[in-house]
Design goal:
α1 crosses α13 and α9 packs antiparallel against α10. The termini are close together. The longest helix has 24 residues. The chain is mostly helical and 318 residues long. 51% of the residues lie in helices and 0% in strands. It contains 13 helices and no strands.
């Protein structure tokens, strides 16, 4: 029997989260900005892009996560993330000139097919990207399939962008806020753009093989470990502060604690721990359970949770 999507999310969190590889001690220097630290909801995504050399901060040591990002800046980031290099011969856009720093990136974006320009023949490189424009780029590149999702934005989405926004939301790449608003027509912040796009930054196959000594299993576990580290951060910094009852907080703390125990010892009985946590969950009121599931769903992507499911419970019919 197929389970409700929210129930799947909750079960994956309570069961799968305990199953990840040991959390190795950090041996690389963390990205540091004066206005950004690990408590920021988008820290993991920003860190991933900064460490890959795709985006950087400002000379004064800030990152300005709440600042906006221009269309020109965005195409450069997208091209680097997807390793696009082939260029169209000419831009055919009236406001793009060969001497512009972003000229080649626009040619590359056009060749890749995710930028065509506006109806008046312009690209508008200095305009800040909107959240729905970002959705269109993400959807166009990745050919997203719409997944089951029982929420729609309560606020305005441009008619042309409804499909793009819907597919991005259903894949949990970007999320609705607590009031079910998406702010589609508003400008995307640097943090929002980095968080969304970082999900598509793949580790180079050669680097993966070297780091695992050629062992495919170790490589796969490392991938899952990276996913878990992201989910842990989202639970601690995104979910717990928004919970309203002690019972909810206790369950999420149990999840985090059990993950950490498994990280310290891979023989830890995570399944028994998951069952005990789920027993606590069943004792909560319906309202508490619904709120907890919703907060977990809002702060995590289905893709991350399903990746853990496929790695540790491939036989589970969920």
């Amino acid at each position: 029997m197929k389970k409700n999507l929210k129930f799947i999310v909750l079960m994956l969190v309570t069961c799968l989260m305990f199953t990840l590889p040991a959390f190795a001690e950090e041996n690389t220097e963390k990205v540091k900005f004066t206005d950004l630290n690990e408590s920021h909801w988008a820290y993991a995504g920003i860190e991933k892009l900064v460490e890959a050399g795709i985006i950087s901060g400002y000379p004064d040591g800030t990152f300005k996560p709440e600042g906006n990002i221009t269309r020109a800046e965005l195409v450069k980031i997208v091209n680097l993330i997807y390793s696009y290099t082939d260029k169209q011969e000419a831009a055919n856009l009236s406001d793009i000139k060969p001497e512009d720093w972003f000229y080649d990136h626009v040619l590359i974006a056009q060749k890749a097919g995710y930028i065509i320009g506006f109806e008046d023949g312009t690209f508008r490189p200095s305009d800040d990207i909107t959240r729905e424009q970002l959705c269109k780029i993400i959807d166009t590149i990745n050919n997203l399939v719409e997944l089951p999702f029982d929420k729609t934005p309560a606020d305005e989405v441009s008619t042309w962008a409804v499909g793009y926004v819907g597919r991005v939301l259903s894949n949990r790449i970007m999320l609705l806020d607590e009031n079910s608003n998406f702010r589609a027509t508003e400008k995307a912040t640097r943090a929002e753009a980095c968080d969304a796009l970082s999900k598509f930054l793949l580790q180079d196959d050669v680097d993966t093989q070297e780091s695992s000594g050629g062992n495919g299993g170790n490589s796969e576990q490392k991938e899952v470990d990276e996913t878990m580290s992201t989910v842990i951060r989202r639970l601690e910094n995104g979910v717990i502060p928004e919970l309203t009852t002690d019972a909810q907080v206790e369950i999420v703390n149990d999840i985090v604690s059990n993950m950490e125990k498994y990280q310290a010892d891979n023989s830890y009985d995570y399944k028994s721990a998951a069952e005990k946590t789920y027993d606590k969950y069943k004792k909560m009121s319906d309202e508490e359970r619904e709120e907890l599931k919703e907060k977990i769903q809002l702060k995590n992507t289905t893709g991350d949770l399903l990746e853990l499911k496929e790695f540790f419970f491939p036989e589970a019919d969920i």
